[in-house]
UniProtKB/TrEMBL annotation:
Protein name: Unsaturated glucuronyl hydrolase
Keyword Heme set for record: no
UniProtKB keywords: Hydrolase
PANTHER family: HYDROLASE, PUTATIVE (AFU_ORTHOLOGUE AFUA_7G05090)-RELATED
GO terms, molecular function: chondroitin hydrolase activity
UniProt signal peptide: none
Biological process according to GO: polysaccharide catabolic process
Family the UniProt entry places it in: Belongs to the glycosyl hydrolase 88 family.
Domain of life: Eukaryota
Coiled coil: none
Length: 495
C-alpha cells in the first residue's frame, strides 16, 4: 500500500512545493489556524449558554448534542437528557474558552479595547457553574463507564482554575464509582451493561457477557487524574490494567507499513465481548461503525487519545507504542482515502486550493455513497489530533524531536484542514453596547448554525435503530475537542 508521510503530504499547504503551481503560499501556523483566534469561538459558546439556559429554566436538565444541517431543526442545537454520555461536553466548552481567557487573554480573540475581558470572564464563569453544577449528581452513578466524559471537562478546570474543592470531590467520587465497574477476572472496566439497540442483537446478561468498547480508553484519564489528586494508587492501577487488557482484546495488527515508522500499525474494532468467567474473547462487534471488521474512524481516534493519555500518566512504554501504532494507521488511512475526499476551492482567488484530505471519513472502510459529498466525521479528526499533540509532548520529554515534529505536524494539518472544510459560515462576535456589558452579533453568509463546526457523524450503519443514525451535523464534542486543541497549543507555546 503506497503511503506518504504527513509532512510530505502537507508540502502544498506550507509552500515547500512551487506555490504558483499548487496555489498555496508559505504561511505561519498562526495564520493558517487564525480561525482559532477569532472571538467566534467564545461568542458561539456564550450564545448557546444563554439561549439554552433560558429554555432550561436556569437549571439545565437537557444538554446540547447535535446541530442538524437539514430538517426542521436545521442550525439549532438538539439536546439530550442529563444522564446521556455527552452531557459533559458543552459545560466543557464553556470552561475551555474560559481557560483561554484567563491563562492566555491575548489569544482569546476578544476585540482589544472594545470589551472589558473581565466581564466576559465573569459571564463564562457564571455560565459554567450553572451548566456544570447539575452534573455533580452524575458522579454517583455506577451504571456507566462514561463518567470521564461527563465529569472531567468541567470539574477539572473548576478545580485547576478556581481551586473548587467540591469539584475535586466530585472527580474523586466519580472515579471511585467508575472503578466499581472493574472486574478482576477480566482485568477491565465494564463499558456497557447491555447491548440491545441493533436489529437482531439482544445482549442483556452480565453473567455471560462483559462488553468493552474502545471509547473506554478515553475515560481512563478520570482514574489517573483522581489517583494523582487523591493519592489513591488503586485507581491508577485499574486504569493501567484496563489499558493492558484492551491491548490484547482491541488492537489489531495491520500488515501495511507507513513511511518513516518502524513499529507495528494497529487498527481497532469498536466492541469486544469477553467471557466474564475466563476473560477470553467471545465475539467482536461494532455498535457505531460500518461493520464488525471495519475501522470506525472515531473509535480509532478514541484509541489514539486514550493510549496517549495512559502513557502520559503512567510512563509505561507499551502504551506509547500502542498510541503511535494507532496514530500511524489513522494517518495512513487519511492519506490513502479515495480521491473523492479531496475538495478544491479558490477562496475568491485564481489559485486553487485542495482541502478535505485530512478530514476523516466516518468509517475508513464504509462505501462512499455520495462521491460529491463523502460522509465524514470531523470529531474523529479532532480527537485524534488531540491525541497526537499529547504524543508530541511525550516525545519532547523524551528528547526525540523528530517524532515530536512528526505527530505535531500531523495534528496541525488535520486541524487546519478541518477549519478550512467544516467551519460553519455563520460567525458570532462579542460586541460592546451602551445598555449592556456586551452582546452577541452575527455576521457572514449562510443560515443560523449554533455549533462551531459542521460535518460530524454519530453513526451511519445499517443495523442501528433509526434514532441512533445521526450523521453529517454539528456535534458538541467536535467543538469541545477543537477548543481543547487550541489550549494544548497555547500551553506548548506553538502559536
Amino acid at each position: 500500500m503506497k503511503s506518504t508521510s504527513p509532512i510530505e503530504r502537507s508540502l502544498p499547504y506550507n509552500g515547500s512545493l512551487d506555490a504558483e503551481e499548487h496555489g498555496f503560499e508559505q504561511r505561519s501556523w498562526s495564520f493558517r489556524l487564525s480561525a482559532l483566534y477569532s472571538d467566534n469561538l467564545i461568542a458561539k459558546v456564550l450564545r448557546t449558554a444563554a439561549v439554552y439556559l433560558e429554555n432550561n429554566k436556569e437549571i439545565p436538565s437537557q444538554y446540547p448534542e447535535i446541530v442538524p444541517q437539514n430538517g426542521i431543526n436545521q442550525g439549532k442545537w438538539e439536546s439530550r437528557e442529563i444522564d446521556f454520555w455527552t452531557s459533559g461536553f458543552f459545560p466543557g466548552c464553556i470552561y475551555s474558552v474560559l481557560e483561554t481567557c484567563i491563562r492566555y487573554p491575548g489569544k482569546s480573540g476578544l476585540p482589544h479595547g472594545a470589551i472589558n475581558p473581565q466581564i466576559v470572564v465573569r459571564e463564562l464563569a457564571e455560565s459554567g457553574r450553572r451548566w456544570s453544577d447539575p452534573l455533580k449528581g452524575q458522579a454517583l452513578r455506577t451504571d456507566t463507564h462514561d463518567l470521564g466524559f461527563v465529569i472531567l471537562p468541567s470539574m477539572r478546570p473548576r478545580w485547576e482554575l478556581f481551586h473548587d474543592q467540591d469539584a475535586l470531590k466530585t472527580i474523586i467520587q466519580a472515579a471511585n464509582n467508575l472503578a466499581s465497574r472493574f472486574d478482576d477476572r477480566v482485568s477491565a472496566v465494564r463499558s456497557w451493561d447491555t447491548f440491545d439497540w441493533h436489529d437482531n442483537v439482544n445482549i442483556t446478561s452480565q453473567e455471560d457477557n462483559f462488553l468493552i468498547i474502545i471509547d473506554s480508553m478515553a475515560n481512563m484519564e478520570l482514574l489517573f487524574y483522581a489517583a494523582a489528586q487523591s493519592g489513591d494508587g488503586r485507581l491508577a492501577d485499574i486504569a493501567v490494567a484496563h489499558s493492558r487488557t484492551l491491548m490484547r482484546s482491541h488492537l489489531r495488527k495491520e500488515t501495511c507499513v507507513r513511511k518513516g515508522y518502524q513499529g507495528e500499525l494497529y487498527s481497532t474494532p469498536h466492541l469486544v465481548n469477553l467471557d466474564p468467567r475466563t476473560g477470553l474473547i467471545k465475539e467482536t462487534r461494532t455498535a457505531q461503525g460500518y461493520s464488525d471488521s471495519s475501522t470506525w474512524s472515531r473509535g480509532q481516534s478514541w484509541g489514539i487519545l486514550g493510549y496517549a493519555q495512559a502513557y502520559q500518566w503512567s510512563g509505561h512504554g507499551e502504551f506509547l507504542e500502542a498510541a503511535c501504532g494507532l496514530a500511524e494507521y489513522f494517518l495512513l488511512r487519511l492519506e490513502t482515502a479515495p480521491d473523492s475526499v479531496d475538495r478544491f476551492t479558490t477562496n475568491g482567488t485564481n489559485k486553487p486550493r485542495k482541502l478535505g484530505r485530512f478530514v476523516p471519513l466516518w468509517d475508513f472502510d464504509a462505501p462512499i455513497e455520495n462521491s460529491k459529498n463523502p460522509l465524514r466525521d470531523v470529531s474523529a479528526g479532532l480527537i485524534a489530533a488531540n491525541g497526537m499533540v499529547i504524543l508530541a509532548q511525550c516525545f519532547t520529554a523524551l528528547g526525540d524531536h523528530q517524532r515530536n515534529a512528526r505527530y505535531l505536524d500531523a495534528a496541525l494539518i488535520i486541524v487546519e484542514d478541518t477549519l478550512n472544510l467544516a467551519l460553519a459560515r455563520e460567525k458570532a462576535h462579542v460586541m460592546e453596547t451602551d445598555s449592556e456589558p456586551f452582546k452577541i452579533n452575527i455576521s457572514g453568509v449562510g443560515e443560523r448554525f449554533d455549533a462551531i463546526l459542521k460535518h460530524s457523524t454519530v453513526c451511519y450503519n445499517s443495523f442501528s435503530f433509526r434514532k441512533n443514525k445521526a450523521h453529517d451535523h454539528g456535534l458538541v464534542y467536535a467543538d469541545y475537542y477543537l477548543l481543547t486543541f487550541k489550549n494544548r497549543l497555547l500551553q506548548m507555546g506553538i502559536i
